Amino acid sequence: MNSLLLVKIIATILAFALGLIGGLLPIKLHQYSPFKVQIGEAMAGGIFLGGGLVHMLSDSQYGMFEKKIQFPFPAVLCGVGFYFTIFLEVILTPKLLKMVAKKESKKGTKLNQESSLESSTESSSQNEIINEDKHDATNERKVLVSDTKGEETLGHHHNQISEYLNSKTSSKALPIILVTALCFHAVLEGLALGACRQVNESISITIAELAHKPFASFAIGAATYRAYSPKLLVIFIFLFSLGSPLGIFLGMLAATFGSSMVSLVIISLAAGTFLFAGTLEAKEVLNGDRDWIKYIVTLMGFALMSIVAIWN
């Protein structure tokens, strides 16, 4: 067994295992620290940026140069991958989440209005018998209305995974949307690793993927745990964990039966997804409290991948 195949097999096993572990943690951890999760995401963001820029994009450019291709195809394909990921995760997924949140908000408002009507009917009937309870019934209705407004406000903040982790809703559709989007992302990342033809490059991509895998899986697990039973949570996490192995397998097929040009194209496209994870996703993580700590951690992740490039 050659070293390249061994690295890909180990990466496949670890990606699947970390996906399962990260996704099943919400069953055990009923209370967790969002800041610790954000620290891990910040480190993964720096690793992704380093992997995309320092390793994948530069390697594909060098491969194109060896083929005496003057046009900067790697940079163009990287941009295509970057903007495709933006469409998937910044435009399409948030719109679907907002549609779901809007429907839930309408359902919640309708239920709260019905409960308010019932409570007002009961209070009015009591007032006919005991007039002294009128003031208390009015105060109770005010509290109910204020609680309803709070729930409606929470319903409009599910356009980012980190915001969903901090919310208190339990949508049935949100986990399905998250699993679909992140599975597709995982397959793209796996394609890059499977298409690699060099050991050092495959190791750097493996580091980036494994650093990100448990946090994405944890987000899906937290969303699924609130809306479904533990059995369905296991099914969702199992499907998500198969994303990277599937991508690796497809990438290996493309590298085996296709030319080296196919591998370079796949790596260039995947570099765009890595740049997205290292820039726009990291920007969301850096917002909030103690942002300077998360910024330093992001730099550490990028520095780690830059140091790894010395041995490449």
TrEMBL record:
InterPro entries: ZIP (IPR003689)
One Pfam family named in its UniProt record: Zip
Location (main, coarse): membrane
Segments traversing the membrane: 6-27, 39-57, 69-92, 232-255, 261-280, 292-311
Keywords: Membrane, Transmembrane, Transmembrane helix
Biased composition (Low complexity): 111-129
Acyltransferase as UniProt keyword: no
Entry's Gene Ontology cellular component terms: membrane
Topological type in the membrane: Multi-pass membrane protein
Keyword Cell membrane attributed: no
A Gene Ontology molecular function term of the record: zinc ion transmembrane transporter activity
Domain of life: Eukaryota
Compartments reported by the entry: Membrane
Region (Disordered): 110-133
Name recorded for this polypeptide: Zinc transporter zip1
Originating species: Anaeramoeba flamelloides
Organism ancestry: Eukaryota, Metamonada, Anaeramoebidae, Anaeramoeba
